[in-house]
Amino acid sequence: MLTSVLLVAGWVLQRWTQPLTYFAAAAERLGTDIQAPPLDERGPFEVRTAAKAFNRMQARIRRLVEDRIALAAAIAHDLGTPITRLRLRVEEIGEEEARRAILQDLQQMQRMIAATLGFARLDFTAEPTEMLDVMSLVQRVADDASDAGGEVNFSGPEHLPLRTRPIALQRALTNIVENAVKYGKRARISVAEQPGAIEIAVEDDGPGIPEPLHAEIFEPFRRLPQTTDKAIDGTGLGLTVARSLIRGLGGDITLANRHEGGLRVMITLPSVRETRLGM
Fold it and tell me: What is the largest CA-CA distance in the chain?
């Protein structure tokens, strides 16, 4: 009798908890892929109702993202035309110093518009996932930064396979390394494998970022006050884009000031490894 009761209780418990597991997995997937296929709307009445509500929510989120992209494109187009006219009119200014200063401001505005449009168009799911060697990707980023005049070195295992979106990861890491070189003179990249995760740390020798500002620095267009007399170009979107891309890969970015001076940016990615690379 007791055995029968336990079996029935187990069946009932599974019947009630299985849909919860199903919806939890769907919500987790939606967090990194708004283009994920809709849920199956078959099954018991309660499950069908919840699945339909979830699918409607996903469709609304997708429309909001698409509307944001369309709005950013329209704003960028509308602002681009008067800026082009201003550039033509500035050429008629006789004073060289004033003309050069205005042109620099207009160039900065154009860069900000382009960066804003690029940020609004971030699509975390258009790129398919594939197996790659993280160390090869880090090597490419380091080589590109070195070719641009930066001092970059890296360390880690000889090979480290990972299933991810390579273009998104490379773009995020490039933004972080460029920031390290720009503000900290040089960048050191280290890669380590942890249980269930891969960590990519980027360290520099710059002034660091005050801890109370660690959250704010990821906000769009947020830039720290200049600590040197040398002007540093930028739009304030580098870390914003990097974190959005990494979160789109299911990971995250954290900041920490180093005891020796400088900043450490830590990328943590889930290590989903289905097959070994051909190595």
Answer: 100
